[in-house]
């Protein structure tokens, strides 16, 4: 007889529910949220598990890896889909959630998610910590600008390097304000120093990673965008078609259809927010740059018809598709590629070779020129 298990994981304890193939509850228990405690229950020879489900969360990657190493058929379930199913319950408890997850495993009513590899998790931590330090440093600078403005002291337009000197210049004749400003300047200085350390570490990783270097041959894609894409996609083979990448990153339009109503809304904004932001910034940077490429020409045509904002989103989605094809095919995005009737990325599921793209008139800056200064 086959068995199915549902795990409702919290920080300290995990509720476990085991059902048979008829839906009858065989066992319910609450154990510590540790791999050893879960394995002690799930490796019982009396149970023949067909599926073991747990919801995606902070501890899911750690527990999933431990259960998978024990050769258990564990499945990590998408959070929003599970929440929609469990919402039908009247009483919300950990025990009832475990029961609901077990029944979802039994009937196959679930949507699995990809659990990232250990290396991708570490890269993600690097990117997250770098972004966190940047946001804190910017918050301190904005706070200094705002508080000093109350006293008629205007910082004005000043770069990151000269910011501290400008603040000290403004409060030079105001010792009471200088005492209050100094702690924030010290914290900001420490944050900026650590940001430089993390960014240099990021550049070293990108320089030694072949996939990242190939992704950077795409116009508008730098080391941060390439590494973020590398860590987010993780395993490119999990996408059957390249055009699915845009939907996973929330860059495709949502759709509502009921009876005679059929409309397309704005982009869904589901999936990884950091990756979506990076692609949007890369597209915006490309359109604001003076350098031309066939991608920019394609986006500018959309901008003339639909506006700049929609063109940036469309270009961000197309960048995601092209980068996936570069990764899967193992080829570069050569600077000889031109805008044609069917350029690569127009049909994202196509396996058309880069050299077969029709040529136009707009030149693309060589990728080698863009790469070299970063690693000198």
Can you walk me through this structure?
The chain has 376 residues and is α/β, with parallel strands linked by helices. The protein folds into 3 domains: 3-107, 2-Layer Sandwich (Nucleotidyltransferase, domain 5); 119-208; 210-375, no CATH class. The chain is 51% helix and 12% strand. The chain contains 14 helices and 7 strands. A hairpin with a 2-residue loop joins strand 6 (253-258) and strand 7. It is globular and about 80 Å long.
Give descriptors for this structure.
alpha/beta; disordered C terminus; five-stranded mixed sheet; Nucleotidyltransferase, domain 5; two-stranded antiparallel sheet; 376 residues; 3 domains
Mean pLDDT: 87
H/E series: EEEHEHEHHHHHHHHEEHHHH
What class do helices, strands and sheet pairing give? alpha/beta
Helix content: 40-55%
Placed side by side, the strands forming the largest sheet appear as 3-2-1-4-5
Can you tell me the overall shape?
A: globular
Count of helix runs: 14
Major sheet description: 5 strands, mixed
Radius of gyration, in angstroms, nearest whole number: 26 Å
Q: Termini, distance in Å?
A: 63 Å
């Amino acid at each position: 007889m086959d068995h199915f298990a549902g795990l409702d994981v919290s920080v300290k304890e995990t509720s476990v529910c085991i059902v048979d193939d008829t839906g009858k509850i065989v066992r319910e228990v609450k154990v510590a949220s540790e791999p050893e405690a879960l394995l002690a229950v799930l490796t019982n020879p009396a149970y023949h598990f067909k599926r073991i489900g747990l919801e995606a969360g902070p501890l899911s990657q750690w527990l999933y890896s431990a259960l998978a190493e024990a050769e258990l058929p564990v499945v990590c379930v998408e959070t929003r889909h599970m929440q929609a199913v469990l919402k039908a319950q009247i009483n919300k408890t950990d025990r009832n959630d475990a029961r609901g997850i077990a029944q979802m495993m039994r009937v196959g009513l679930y949507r699995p998610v990809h659990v990232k590899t250990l290396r991708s998790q570490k890269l993600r931590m690097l990117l997250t910590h770098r972004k966190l330090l940047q946001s804190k440093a910017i918050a301190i600078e904005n706070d200094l600008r705002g508080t000093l403005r109350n006293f008629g002291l205007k910082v004005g337009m000043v770069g990151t390097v000269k910011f501290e000197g400008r603040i000290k210049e403004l409060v030079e004749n105001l010792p009471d304000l200088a005492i209050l400003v100094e702690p924030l300047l010290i914290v900001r200085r420490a944050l900026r120093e650590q940001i430089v350390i993390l960014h240099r570490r990021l550049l070293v990783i990108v320089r030694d990673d072949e996939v990242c270097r190939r992704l950077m041959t795409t116009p508008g894609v730098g080391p941060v965008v390439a590494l973020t894409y590398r860590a987010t996609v993780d395993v490119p083979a999990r996408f059957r078609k390249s055009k699915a990448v845009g939907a996973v990153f929330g860059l495709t339009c949502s759709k509502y259809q009921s009876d005679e109503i059929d409309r397309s809304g704005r982009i869904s904004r589901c999936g990884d927010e950091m990756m979506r932001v990076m692609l949007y910034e890369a597209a915006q940077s490309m359109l604001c740059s003076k350098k031309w490429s066939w991608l920019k020409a394609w986006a500018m045509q959309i901008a003339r018809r639909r506006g700049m904002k929609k063109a940036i989103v469309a270009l961000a989605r197309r960048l995601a598709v092209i980068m996936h094809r570069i990764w899967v095919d193992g080829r570069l995005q050569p600077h000889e590629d031109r805008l044609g009737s069917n350029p690569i990325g127009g049909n994202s599921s196509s396996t058309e070779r880069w050299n077969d793209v029709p040529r136009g008139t707009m030149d693309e800056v060589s990728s080698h020129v863009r790469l070299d200064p970063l690693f000198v």
